[in-house]
Amino acid sequence: GVPITLHLIFFQAVASPPSSNFLLLGPSGAGKTAFTTLLEAKSSPASKKSQSTHTSQQSTLVTVSLPPDVPTASNRYRSVNDPSLKEAARNPIKYRVRDTPGHGKLRVSQGLSELQAMAQSKDIKTRLRGVVFMVDTAALVGEATLRDTATYLHDVLLVLQKRAKNGSSSKRTSEIPVLVAANKQDLFTALPPGSVKEKLEAEIDRIRKSKNKGLLDASADSTLDDDEEILGNDDLESFSFKLLEHEVGVKVEVVGGAVKGDQQEEYGSGVRRWEEWIGMCL
Ligand code: GDP
């Protein structure tokens, strides 16, 4: 029976592809390609440095593994002496990351439509576990970059809000969470994650208010598109990620890190805390 058992194990490994998908979004230059390349390199340390030739023109899908010492939602109470840790080292948990281009035009056609398709998918193989929205925290001091970034994030959150509102209330727990990966914390010009959060919230609030005003003006001549929706609630309360979580159930977390400084404690622990966020979605 041994050969048959081995055969079955092998077959299972091949037949059940990893089904935890994460979508990587964010403006061009934020570090998305660098992040996926790093994850790939960390997943296969034996092979020589990843030769990925990711272009920024189309999206790529990579399968990577979670470091064995990063807890997942299902094993977070595991002790360090747990034998399953050794097992995890031998057989790491895998997940898939889809990297998308971030340029203005491509963003709408690829990033957002990719999100729409994945967010609606009921197929377990393409089901979306979470969105990682990457930002360059050094570039965010520029007004134009802040507006551009906040507009993109606003549009992403609106897609997730529409999905949440269309779903049945029993699926409340399956809302897709968003990690705002506050990248490039190694640069001394970088904004700390707390102020990245404040700036994005304030800018999204502005976007939302001007959209609301536009809708009110438009409703006067009754050409209102009923697909139009306001992020969060329609009240005058200012926008915050807390509000969105409370009103819609979509969770947004801003966590600092650096693709460049990975493995160097002083840079917000590299990408470690993003991997921990991913682990909690698995
Ligand atoms: P993408 O357009 O979002 O895919 O961005 P890229 O991955 O191409 O990165 C844009 C630039 O930022 C590249 O020159 C990267 O080397 C650089 N970069 C990425 N992550 C970091 C980081 O954590 N720190 C610093 N200093 N530079 C980074």
Overview of the molecule:
It is built from eight helices and six strands, in the order H-E-H-E-H-E-H-E-H-E-H-H-E-H. The protein has helices at 2-15, 32-43, 83-90, 104-120, 143-166, 193-219, 241-248, 272-281; strands spanning 21-25, 60-65, 94-99, 128-136, 178-183, 252-256. Strands 2-3-1-4-5-6 form a six-stranded mixed sheet, with helices on both faces. Strand 4, helix 5 and strand 5 form a beta-alpha-beta unit. Helix 4 (104-120) runs parallel beside helix 5 (143-166) and helix 5 (143-166) crosses helix 6. It starts with a helix and ends with a helix. Residues 11-16 have low confidence and may be disordered. Guanosine-5'-diphosphate (GDP) is lined by residues 26, 28-34, 56, 102, 183-184, 186-187, 258-260.
